[in-house]
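fyi for ur records
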Amino acid sequence: MEYRQLGRSGLKVPALSYGTGTFGGGNEFFKAWGASDVAEATRLVDICLDAGVNLFDTADIYSDGLSETILGKAVAGRRDKVLISTKATFRLGPGPNDLGSSRHHLIQAGEASLRRLGTDYIDIYHMHGFDALTPQEEVLSTLDHLVTSGKVRYIACSNFSGWHLMKALDVSDRYGRARYVGHQVYYSLLNREYEWELMPLGADQGVGALIWSPLGWGRLTGKIRRGQPLPKESRLHKTGDMGPQVSDDHLYNVVDALDEVAKECGKSVPQVALNWLLQRPTVSTVIFGARNEEQLRQNLGAAGWNLTSAQVAKLDRASDVTPTYPYWHQRQFLERNPLPVAPTAK
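which gave:
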């Protein structure tokens, strides 16, 4: 397994990491993802560690905390062998302070995550979303306190806009606080908006990307084909309307290109889709999920090889869309405003 630096930090993370949203199945939304119990989760963690995947991602809201609890039991006795990433900010309780990134909620949420995980520190602590009501000085001073106290090693954010992230980085730099070194973002061949602003920002500011839902919210599993109904077992039946929306034309153009490239290189469609992401600028790690051992082993096969430049270009062309303003305008000024990923001519 290849290991990469997480942004400008000194922490090395595996190119592929395992998302544990499939652990627990504690409510209807997460049952559609998976429902691994402690025994199955332990087996999946074993397989990951054997393959060199030592970063496991979870969140306090995944199955109402059950994902953290199961992950903690699955890594018990080998905490020093793994990296744990978890998140806070979204609502987890009925009270007026049971959400957000206030000092009150973050300290409370962090302590609860530590208890569920059965550990005394979190390797990467994410703000799951941007809290526009709490001053960034309060957010970053709280996170800095968690870092200096040893309860958190590194801080990161997730699902931020460009100005959200830049404002937070400015506060950290101005007051000498701990700085976000990672940004967990949605990015896939079906939805490449990350490239328009967040990727250039990450490259400029040294913020590494941790990719979530790299298979396009379950659409790039290789089971969806032009002119065919959804497979019987797909989380899209229950969660399709909750995730990123994609037109049928765009979906099938990407799927057709993936099929062609998969046949050329003798790999599966998911392996090709994941490998494409591994070659993108600023990507520190790609977080994949798996309902079972078979899916896990297939996804692990996305690492250790590279698509050719011609295959990458084919996938780029099939997945490219005209960006919104001002990004389409900036594409016309590449001589002085270069982008990390230049548009590929169709």
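The chain has a mean pLDDT of 93. thats all i got for now
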